[in-house]
Design goal:
The protein is an alpha/beta fold and about 160 residues long. Helix content is about 30%, strand content about 25%. It is globular. The termini are far apart.
Length: about 160
């Protein structure tokens, strides 16, 4: 809710067709707890363990990636930085993963993924199974860097494109 209010305020005078979807993207639709992080609202998470400084929780709506993607005409890019929920988001985005003309930017945060019950390897595997590869490196190199991350809050992003046949 805090993020949605901030976005609406920033868009205040803009006369553009922008819809703010006040929901967490996940594997299924419904409701869930969103844990607030006191250090930064950008660090809010669906997993309490992923918050650096816990600051309560609120109940939010959940939507699937396929639902959100189906609402966007001419979708060209997707950025996922979801504090460990990346694999679960992709579970709700199978139709979107099968599209060809997209670019993805995805956060790889090893600790956050593990706290959410997955891993960087599982995240890479989901993308690989659907033909997505890093734009500038191999999956082996990206995973090697991800496994070398030794700070609990450190992450890095990877840009993905559809593999050419």
């Amino acid at each position: 809710p805090d993020s949605a209010a901030k976005i609406r305020k920033r868009l205040g005078g803009h006369n553009r067709p922008i819809d703010v979807i006040e929901a967490a993207c996940f594997a299924r639709a419904g409701k869930c707890a969103l844990y607030r992080d006191g250090t930064s609202r950008a660090c809010n998470s669906l997993w309490e363990k992923n918050c650096i400084e816990r600051d309560g929780a609120c109940v939010v709506e959940m939507v699937t990636l396929d639902d959100v993607a189906s609402r966007v005409r001419n979708l060209k890019a997707i950025k996922i930085d979801a504090q460990g929920a990346e694999v679960q988001i992709l579970q709700g985005g199978i139709e979107t993963l099968m599209r060809d003309r997209l670019v993805w930017q995805v956060e790889l945060w090893p600790r956050g993924l593990v706290n959410a019950g997955s891993s960087v390897d599982e995240l890479a595997q989901v993308f690989e199974q659907h033909g997505w590869i890093p734009s500038e490196r191999t999956w082996a190199a990206v995973l090697e860097d991800a496994h070398a991350i030794d700070l609990p809050t450190k992450s890095h992003d990877v840009v993905l494109v559809k593999a050419t046949k």
